[in-house]
Amino acid sequence: MSGLLTTSVGSLPKPDYLAKARSAFASGRIDASELDKLTRQATTECIRMQEDVGLDILVHGEMERGDMVTYFGERLTESMAIGGLVRSYGNRYYRKPIITGELRWQGPMTVEMWRYAQSLTDKPVKGMLTGPYTIVEWSFDEHYNSRRDAVLAMAQVVRCEAEELVKAGAKFVQVDEPAASTRPEEMDLVLEALAIVTRGLGAKTITHVCYGDFARVFDHIAKLPVDQIDLEMANSDYALLEMIREHRDEFDKELAMGVVDVHNHVLETREQVKAGIRKGLEVLPPERLFIDPDCGLKTRTWDEAEAKLRLIVEATREVKRELEID
């Protein structure tokens, strides 16, 4: 694969029919097989849309997941329970998991849907996991004596799942840690736990980090034990690029750089996106720079998500032609 590749971060918007089906399943009006059928239909649409817009590395869209943390809590039934609704941001809520016992991997949680998505395309589809620190941070812990014990135990669980994805054929495994920078005093724990998941995995490893005061923790972010770090850039006017420039000697990783704001209904102009890509190329060479949205696109409409991804691809192709990048 050549340089300046395009991808997406993870989630895509759920079609209306799937959102209604998930509600119907929760109230007992349809069974699991019907929900699975519609989930696969939506996943197929996610793959087809990404192929149509021309992305290089695809995501499966997370159609089977209501929330990135609750999904895993619902499958670790021997050691986790699901609590009541709590607000995550704005008017969005999720059911907060509760750690009730010793954390153990109980079997594959993401492999079946990843394998289905990968069967639909010749392009690579990323295996998508939520990181151990974020799962613990966004859960209640009623079992462990310390956060470190809980996070490292969860890291072993996520490691087992990552290994299963690689065994199934995943070439890219992304471990999202959006909560990583929210407690600067715990960044050493974030690194320790993520290393358990990624070290020697046998696939390209990626983490997506958002929120928090990056300036306070950027030394740690630069040391995250992954091959590629995915950071939002567009909604901060590319301020994080200056931190990477200042730490260029220590920053030896690939960067997936967000060039469209996923929290805005407005579609950026092609020139805005091209200007952002050029800023990235001032800091890193094209073979270490990947172009994507700021974050997952599940909060946008389907048309908005498709338009933003298409814009990313078209702007990237223009920059590559203009600068004669392979």
What does this structure look like?
The protein has eleven helices and ten strands. α1 packs antiparallel against α2 and α10 (270-281) crosses α11. The chain is 42% helix and 15% strand. By secondary structure, the protein is of the alpha/beta class. The protein is globular, with a radius of gyration of 19 Å. The termini are close together.
Write the layout of secondary structure elements.
Layout: E1 5-6, H1 16-26, H2 32-53, H3 70-73, E2 80-89, E3 92-99, H4 111-119, E4 127-130, H5 132-137, E5 140-141, H6 147-168, E6 172-176, H7 187-198, E7 204-209, H8 214-221, E8 228-231, H9 239-246, E9 254-258, H10 270-281, E10 289-292, H11 302-323
Parallel strand pairs: 1-10, 3-5, 4-6, 6-7, 7-8, 8-9, 9-10
Antiparallel strand pairs: 2-3
Helix pairs in contact: 1-2, 6-7, 10-11
Strand fraction band?
Answer: 15-25%
Number of domains: 1
CATH class: Alpha Beta
CATH topology annotation: TIM Barrel
Quick summary:
With 326 residues, the chain is α/β, with parallel strands linked by helices. It is 42% helix and 15% strand. It has helices at 16-26, 32-53, 70-73, 111-119, 132-137, 147-168, 187-198, 214-221, 239-246, 270-281, 302-323; strands at 5-6, 80-89, 92-99, 127-130, 140-141, 172-176, 204-209, 228-231, 254-258, 289-292.
List keywords for this structure.
326 residues, TIM Barrel, 3-stranded mixed sheet, 10 strands, 42% helix, globular
